[in-house]
Each structure stands twice: as C-alpha cells, then as structure tokens.
Design brief:
By secondary structure, this protein is α+β, with helices and mostly antiparallel strands. It is built from 5 helices and 16 strands. It is globular and about 45 Å long. It holds the Pfam family ANAPC10.
C-alpha cells in the first residue's frame, strides 16, 4: 500500500529522470486524445494518467497492446516518460515496446524500439531528432504517437503501466508555474482536480 504523501509527489517525480541541460520541459499529456486497445474494468486511462503510483492501466485483450495519443495540431515532442514497477507487477511489466510518431495513425514513421530489464520507477524515452549539421537535438513534430507493448517480462500476456507522460519543449513562464506547483501541494491538487473535471471518459478514450 502506497501512502498519500508518496502519491502527492508522484505526479511531478518524472522530472528527476530528465537529462542535464535539457532546458524548459512541459507535460503536454492533457493536450491529446488518448485511446487504449483494451482495458480491464477500473484500470483504464484515468488510472494511467492520474497522479498515483498505486493505480495502473491493465490491458485486457490480445497482444500487442497499444496506447494511441493524438493531438489536434502538429505538436513538438521531446520525451515520453513511463512508470513501471517490476517488483510489484512482475510478468505484467513490459520488457519491449515500440513507439511510432507521424502525421496520423495511418501515416507513421519507422518504430523506435525500447527494451527494459526489471525496471522500477520512471523510464525516459528520448524522441528528439538529431541535426546532422550541428549535432543538436530538435523536437519531434507529430500529430500522433502510437505505443505498442510488444513483449512483457516472463512472456506475460497482459500489461501494467502505472504512469505515462508526453513531454514537450516549454517556455520560461510555464516552467515557473511548474516549479510553483512543485512547491505548493494544495495548488497542484487544485489544478489536477480541474483537469479531471474537464475530462470525458468513454469507450477507452480520454478527451
């Protein structure tokens, strides 16, 4: 059982896994429409996106399991961060996933494959592109992200993911707000409550 103090800090703890010198980064997860390939009752998108480490999405169907994230406009994307806990979830923990981005779910680029070995905590997935001329990394521009869970540990059938965020480049003003929320738990909870009140859940989709 996870205590309340742990859950209060969970939603902002992904910042600890960001690379040094990355600059201003924003959580843009709530700007998208989310769809799951399947979900066990009471273990769907709300549990995937809430700020709790003791809740999770559990798939409930045939592999591969997918998470589809769609934005209304072309959006700059830098990272995905995914919270996994092998100690609690064992064979439900993903060991191999593939991520594709593109202009739509019907026009996706070649997949990026990521593997995990008994992970615990936030896992960083870098989606930035590298400029060949100056060897600088730039944001991925996409309307859609498709995440496919290809394999679980111990060949498990269904999967558990306890948290997932989409991160994009931010402004200094927004970054100041993020720091303010991190210092003020009551304010952070207020904005979290407003977000979920505006959210509509139906048929595995969040809008």
């Amino acid at each position: 059982m996870v205590n309340d103090n742990s859950n209060k800090n969970f939603g902002r703890s992904w910042t600890s896994c960001l690379p040094e010198g990355v600059g201003h980064i924003n959580d843009i997860s709530n700007e998208a429409v989310w769809t799951l390939s399947s979900a066990k009752e009471g273990m769907g998108i709300h549990q995937l996106l809430d700020d709790r480490e003791d809740t999770f999405w559990q798939s409930d169907g045939l592999q591969p399991h997918t998470i589809t994230i769609e934005f209304q406009r072309r959006t700059p994307i830098d990272f995905l961060v995914v919270y996994l806990d092998y100690k609690l979830d064992e064979s439900y923990t993903p060991s191999k996933i593939q991520i594709q981005t593109g202009s739509s779910v019907l026009d996706l680029e070649d997949p990026k494959t990521v593997t995990f070995s008994e992970p615990t905590g936030w896992q960083l997935i870098d989606l930035r592109k590298e400029k060949t001329s100056k060897k600088q990394q730039t944001s991925q521009q996409a309307f859609a992200i498709v995440i496919q869970i290809v394999q679980n540990h111990q060949n498990g059938r269904d999967t558990h993911i306890r948290g997932l965020r989409v991160l994009g480049p931010g402004s200094a003003h927004k970054n100041m707000l993020i720091r303010a929320l991190a210092r003020n738990e009551a304010l952070a909870q207020h904005f979290s409550d407003l977000y979920f009140k505006k959210t509509i859940f139906s048929n595995g989709t969040i809008r």
